[in-house]
């Protein structure tokens, strides 16, 4: 069963929340984000079973249970919404462009438990206060040149942005590959 949504269609926020309500669907999306090529359902189910049990390899009964639930429930649902392309005949799965809409909701919170928006807001306020303090020569910052302080904070902002881009590198690379060969996506929608 191939997805019925076009690549540029908007996913209803209620559907996004329904997708994210299930940890197995979240894990499917996370795993597929790091893959440039389609993944077999078997490989995907083994990886999800490992995540859920924290064992490698996961027990056979768990792998089979995950495989069945992915095949019967989760993959068809994600395909119908347009987040993935699920080829039931070939038993392969790949992420589609509309997954970015879901990813926004998944990545709002960093792995350390706070939001990126909160991180950047805090960093910006800290930078502003520190730069003002160095400008008016508040001790112990009075010997630090304002330019050096501002440069240090710019470096931290740049490193943070680079980290965010690096953690989503597969997603961006997949988008570039998809833009280079649009005919391959058109074939899958026929």
From TrEMBL:
Keyword annotations: Membrane, Transmembrane, Transmembrane helix
Residues passing through the membrane, by range: 119-138, 144-166
Ranges for domain DUF7344: 17-94
Lineage: Archaea, Methanobacteriati, Methanobacteriota, Stenosarchaea group, Halobacteria
Pfam families, sorted: DUF7344
Protein name stated in the entry: DUF7344 domain-containing protein
Alphabetical list of InterPro entries matching this protein: DUF7344 (IPR055768)
């Amino acid at each position: 069963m191939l997805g019925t949504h076009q690549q540029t269609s908007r996913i209803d926020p209620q559907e996004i929340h329904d997708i994210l309500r299930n940890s197995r669907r979240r894990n499917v999306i996370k795993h597929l984000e790091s893959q440039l090529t389609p993944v077999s359902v078997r490989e995907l189910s083994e990886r999800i079973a490992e995540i859920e049990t924290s064992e490698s390899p996961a027990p056979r009964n768990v792998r089979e249970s995950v495989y069945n639930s992915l095949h019967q429930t989760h993959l068809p649902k994600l395909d119908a919404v347009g987040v993935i392309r699920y080829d039931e005949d070939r038993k392969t799965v790949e992420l589609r462009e509309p997954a970015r809409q879901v990813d926004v909701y998944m990545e709002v919170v960093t792995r350390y438990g706070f939001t990126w928006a909160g991180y950047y807001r805090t960093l910006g306020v800290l930078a502003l206060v520190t730069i003002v303090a160095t400008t008016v020569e508040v001790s112990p910052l009075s010997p630090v040149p304002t330019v050096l302080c501002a440069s240090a904070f710019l470096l931290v902002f740049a490193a943070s942005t680079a980290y965010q881009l690096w953690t989503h590198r597969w997603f961006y690379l997949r988008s570039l590959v998809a833009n280079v060969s649009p005919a391959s996506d058109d074939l899958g929608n026929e």
